[in-house]
Fold this sequence. Notes:
- The chain is of the alpha+beta class.
- The chain has 2 domains: 1-89 and 327-389, CATH 1.10.630.10; 103-325 and 398-451, CATH 1.10.630.10.
- The protein has helices at residues 25-30, 32-38, 61-69, 79-88, 97-107, 113-131, 142-158, 165-187, 192-195, 199-225, 232-238, 249-280, 282-296, 310-322, 354-358, 377-380, 401-418; strands spanning 45-50, 53-58, 74-76, 139-141, 329-333, 337-339, 342-344, 349-352, 419-423, 444-449.
- The strands form 3 sheets. A 5-stranded mixed sheet has the order 1-2-8-5-3.
- The protein is globular and about 65 Å long.
Amino acid sequence: MSTTAAGRDVAVPTAPGHLPLVGHALPLFRDPLSFLRSLNEVGDLVRVDIGSLPMIMITDHELTRQVLIDSQTFDKGGALFDKVRELTGDSLLTSTYETHRRQRRLMQPAFRRAQVRAYTPTMNRMIDAVLAQWHDGAIIDMAAATYDITARTAARTMFAADVAGPAAARIVDSLSTYLSGLFIRMMSPTSLVTRIPTPGNIRYNRAVKALHASVDEIISAYRKAGVDNGDLLSMLLTASDDDGGALAPEDVHNQVITLFLAGIETTAGALAWSLALLAEHPEVARGVRSEVDTVLNGRAAEWADVPRLVRTSHVLTEALRLYPPGWIFTRVTTSDVTLGGHRLRAGTGIAYSPYLLHHDAEVFPHPDRFDPARWSAERAADIPKDAFIPFGGGVHRCIGETFGVTEATLALATIIARWEFRSVSNRPVAPAPRRATLTPGPLPMRLHRRP
């Protein structure tokens, strides 16, 4: 879909709370989710400034759709992607239109349904490895446990060869430190803040250095061995397009970091939120448990079970609505364009928020209510497809969507089949503060093995 450059020269309204020098950086840093939700009252497009850097925030799902499906006009870029690109380079997550098209063609075979199906035994082994550490009456942090599951799965599907060893573990450890530091860089009104040798900045810089070094170590070992291990890294090293072109060494490096970045945190977050919400809503948990018992009859979930785990899927979908892992994204206009009746010049920074769109009361009645039944076939038909975008949209829609949803469904169903769990904290569950992804804080829960 193309857009025209004709439009009114009407200023986009500015969000309240603008301060000299820092703009809206303070409310974004202190409570970004509440700040974003307040923008609905300002307009469909709202100007938000981070220091001297302006961006236009979209609060309307139809305008967001226009941006997502016209990736040539609204290309990857802006404050967030520029920060992530410092780590991942031009990867599938951050590359601009033409580069992205080629990268996606090269990488798509690794994420086709048949290939994801082939990964499911590995997913189940990693789930079993984590659950085997649990015992009746134990108190565990479910947020940490789900991260452990997805980290193990990412490491083993990416690196089947034993040569990865400790380097893969260093990647996992470094990513969490990186994501905490990334939030500060996203919301900082000036880059000077990140150059001060504070303990946080030192940890961040060490994590980035460790990520690059560990990935290089593993790739070097794979190239030296020259063996196709049937894993994701082997596919990246041997991928070629119709013209015989392959990924350059730097591209392979960047894609490995990107797949870890996207594959661990996002799936772990969706799974952890699902468990937290079920613990808070025992009546929903009973319904899901009944479904799991009927479908699985005491065994672990498998690929063929996923379509039959309907209520389980609804829980995960509702968790992704309430707490989409990626809560804000940015784009940049490549030419003059009209959006929502406002003329935007080439080079204008655009931002959209899945969290904001998912809490629009006109689309999702009682948006703060955990209501998995809203995704039943009858009710979901009334939800505009473009209003639910946890995986993005258009040509940049997440390549690992099927992988992540499958892993989360298998893990959630297997946990419910084997364990009952309840929170041991009286505090309401809330997102971890100042993190680039919308993951929960600690989730201490007491386990009871199901008979």
